[in-house]
Amino acid sequence: MKKNASKLLSLLLSLAMICALFVPAMAADEEAVKPYEIPDVKGKIVILHTNDTHGADKSVEGSSIGMAGVAQLKKDFEAAGAKVLLLSAGDSIMGKPLVSADQGKSAIEFMNAAGYDAMTVGNHELDFGIENLKELAKLAKFPILCADMTTESDNKTVFDANKIFNLDGVKIGVFGLATPETRTKADASKMPGIVFPEKEELYAVAQAQVDELKAAGADVIVCLGHLGIADESVGNQSIDVAKNVNGIDLFIDGHSHSTTAEVTAAISKAGLGDTNVVNGTKIVSTGTALANVGLVIYDKADKSLNDSLITAASYTKTDSAVAKLVNGRDDAVVAAYGEKIAETEADLNGSRSGGTVTATNTKTEVVFPDGKGNRTAETNLGDFAADAILWQAAKTLGEGNVDAAITNGGGIRETLAKGNISKLDLLAVFPFGNTVATIDVTGAQLLEALEAATCSTPDAIGAFPQVSGIEFTINTAVPYVNGEQYPGSTYYAPKNPGSRVTIATVGGEAWDAEKVYTIATNDFTAKGGDTFGVFKAVGGWKDVGVALENALINYTTEVLDGKISAEKYGETAGRITINNLPLDIKNNIWYFDAVSYVLDQGMMSGTGHGYFTPTGDVTRATVYQILYNLEDKPEIASKSVTDVDGKWYADAINWAASEKLFDGTTFGSDAVITRAELAQIIADYAAFKGIEDPDAAGMAMKEASDYEAIPAQYLEGMSFCYYAGIMTGDQAGRLNPTNSLVRAELAQVLLNFGKLLPAEKAA
User: Fold this and answer.
1) SS3 234
2) Contacts by 694-700 with C-beta closer than 8 Å and gap 24+?
3) What is the pLDDT of residues 253-287, one digit of tens each?
4) Which domains, and CATH codes, for the chain?
5) Where is the SLH domain (predicted)?
């Protein structure tokens, strides 16, 4: 056997150092963004639009244009000779404490000052209840438009459905649409008797609005919608409405925090074209938090609509009067809530699904792994928040009276970076005014809740459960199959709870389907918000009477003594496992880790139709193909094996022959491989990789009862694999050299062998 592992390592290190010399130096400073210049818009119609501002109303250079910037933009376009219409697609009154601390009153005052002409209802406009929104509508100097939000008793719209704006002789007809998800994305108890149609009924409402506005002489039809393009909104997306409704010229969208580029990508993915136009409808959206303001220019001459986004990096001008109003309110909020109460030693992930986000407490950018946010996976902020909820409930109800906690990831709204934390920062994490609540459910009902809340995982979903006192696994390879639709919801119960999610422990003990657990949560989910329809069906929830943000404050100051340590919350606690395993691989089987490893590394794949077939046979060609895959399928120097042409494993066998891992010019039949044959192939490949013989006396293997049964030509290979821990005897001490092995056993062999591979292949 070859003994050159140390030489190989030295060579790799040397190459790495040499390559480092050729890495080009990065520019010291990134190219400056050019200031935005108002285009030639004289005699044209300009539509400025925003959505999902969520309290980012203060102008912050590079990150938020702010309301003062929006106001100045409108003035700049008017000064350039355009007629301007300023519209909001909703979610303006809830988010940062700047607007949520007074239940949206400040947001409306800012929008009045900026000169908004209309807005529609976002789901978060109803977080403080329908009566609060009606009071805000009285305060607004612009109409709130919503055609699909009606009262159940008389089927009348709560607000005006549409309005026609006459701009320089051009009639712009605008109507509003709210997402049907408002029924579960806001607290249903705060909007009794309010109805939102969905899918075909929603399309019919929209078509009726188009027809009405056209009959009234509208030249351009604009849908001001809060529908979004999230996967969980399929059927009720802006794309769905555009596809099924004729005559909408422009759809200004919100809800999913998407940019127009992301809308275009979603349209392309749906096979509906490569632009942001569907069925003649141009769909635009700005993202969130005033990082952009949308611009649509209508040319009366050719009746064209041209859209773009104005970024916070390119436009920094502000209206002084509006800036004074916003900054004054911000100073008052900071004075009331801004005093330091704690510090965190770790960046706490408050992102939706990972990536780069701006931390609330430090206003600095923090980067988290893509796909690792509160709507997609367990996060350290999710752990911290759930721990606080569990502790607060237990403190109020008594130790031992609460088993675990769940809070919906979509309710966590801000990231906290290393540094000082104020009450203002924690209020921004939980801005919705929800309270800690408890509900008693059986283990089976808890399983249904977790499975429904992860129905779209790994795609983001606001219901994603951040937990404390619960350990569970989600297998995303298993499709979520809809059962019955939850009453009053756009979501469905799982048809077969437990097929996709398995619970290991609750409250530190093994999960029991029949046991009744007391679960701490928030009043929104306790009442059936998001996907938690099973909680609504169970009923009997209890309000602990402590606001979520106060639970965070109390836990931080009383339990953590003002310090969120890196030791406790620097990493996630490992409460939630997400894998993508075939349907026949369960997490409590002996080969679970091995199969997970070979699938993750691409060493092996499934056998089709979502299965791995762990008891399936392993053939000679399969093994050579795996080794060829490990080498990244290099080009074949020569094709010396004559009887494999046209076979799926032809390249693998010819590669093995060229590297002296296969001896001969004919392969023969692809027979089931024996353990001894496999051991020899693995040993030869180890020598090829420069992996040394394991240090051993060389006699212990003879203790195996069937040592003498090892064919002489495979003795060296079996010895290597035995002493390296790759293939050892069974529980009775037998090596079974002439027996075949199944796919699960091969996976275990590869996992064991992987521990000997260089780091770049084994990681």
Assistant:
1) coil
2) 694/720, 694/723, 694/724, 694/725, 695/723, 696/723, 698/723
3) 999 999 999 999 999 999 999 999 999 999 999 99
4) 45-329 (3.60.21.10), 340-578 (3.90.780.10), 590-762 (no CATH)
5) 578-635, 636-696, 701-763
